[in-house]
Write a structure and sequence with these properties.
157 residues, mainly alpha, Globin-like, 0% strand, Phycobilisome_asu/bsu_sf, bile pigment, Phycobilisome_asu/bsu, Phycobilisome protein, Globin-like_sf
Length: 157
Amino acid sequence: MLTQLSRLNLQADGQYATDQELQFLEDYLNSAEQRIRTYEKIRENESSILVEVETKMHELNKNNSLFFMGQHEKEICRRDRQNAVRYSSAAMLINDLDRLRDGLLIWVQTIVRAVGYKYFVGTHYPIIQEVIKQYLTPEEAALILPALQIDCTILGA
């Protein structure tokens, strides 16, 4: 939304925006109530979602069979999971996946590549998507899943 507003500001400089150029605002306003409800539901269930994701990741990586995770790495992953859910939820709320991608994910991608956790991210983020869907209606999930899929695509690339 913020990215689209910036583009509109540049495109409509000194003139009125067309109906077509304003369509994204109408679309956003029509979905704003549901976006807020979805955001609130994720916020209220964040700790349960994260515990369930961690449990599933632990099952997947029993005895460090996929990748070694010491206590320090586990703490970093917990923090990163929480940030992923929070930043993705914020991007969904304001309907600005470009801002999520350009403002955060490209930077985090550099770190993921540097520490060699691409494979971990590729297995991890689909689990976040799977778990979060259990806490949401299909309509709510349809709002947040694109942000989580971008997380997975960019960080796992």
